[in-house]
Amino acid sequence: MNFSLLAAFVFWILSYFQSSSTFAPNLLFQLLKEFTFIMSDEKPKTYTLKEISEHSSNDSVWVLINNGVYDVSKFLEEHPGGPEVLMDWAGKEATEAFEDVGHSSDARELMKNYKIGELCEEDQKSKAKVNGTSSCIFMKILIPISVVLTAIVIFKAYSHFKK
Ligand code: HEM
């Protein structure tokens, strides 16, 4: 029998039991899920930043959060924060906005239902490079400047009180 079919059957049975309060093998369920995912060759679908940016209309709204791609088109009206905020970030990197709101663990669990894939590795690397460069500039310029400024202030204060 095809492995994916068998895995789907096992999931179906386990999800049925998982929703029952008398049987709660959530950990076992997660482990099996991971295991079957590794065994089957189904790797997550990846998208480029350009592909994601093409989904910013009312019909199709994708957002990028922590390198995960989420199709929230059918979630717009259900979103407790309203559809407008999601539309504001349609087709864009929404990680910071999402984290700034301080979404609950329930929200993080819920978002799994809308995940359609991940940002392709190449774009992940270029994003990391950009972030790396900015933090490098911060380390190389801003820190020495603040150290010098602090030293000047301390020196001025010291000479003032010494008089
Ligand atoms: C798949 C993506 C998302 C899911 C599943 C989701 C889910 C939720 C849920 C369940 C809540 C209720 C509060 C909570 O449990 O934390 C919420 C609130 C909210 N969300 Fe989202 N959200 C998503 C993306 C976003 C994005 C990208 C933004 C952009 C800023 C956003 C902004 C907000 C705001 C402003 C609230 C209201 C917070 C409040 O009233 O305190 N959400 N969201």
TrEMBL record:
Gene3D superfamilies recorded: Cytochrome b5-like heme/steroid binding domain
Quote the SMART domains the UniProt record gives: Cyt-b5 (SM01117)
Q: Which domain of life is it from?
A: Eukaryota
The UniProt entry's GO CC annotations, sorted and at most eight, read: endoplasmic reticulum membrane
Major subcellular location class: endoplasmic reticulum
Assigned keywords, A-Z: Electron transport, Endoplasmic reticulum, Heme, Iron, Membrane, Metal-binding, Microsome, Transmembrane, Transmembrane helix, Transport
Q: How does it sit in the membrane?
A: Single-pass membrane protein
The record, for PROSITE patterns, names: CYTOCHROME_B5_1, CYTOCHROME_B5_2
Question: What protein name is recorded for this chain?
Answer: Cytochrome b5
Q: Which organism is it from?
A: Oedothorax gibbosus
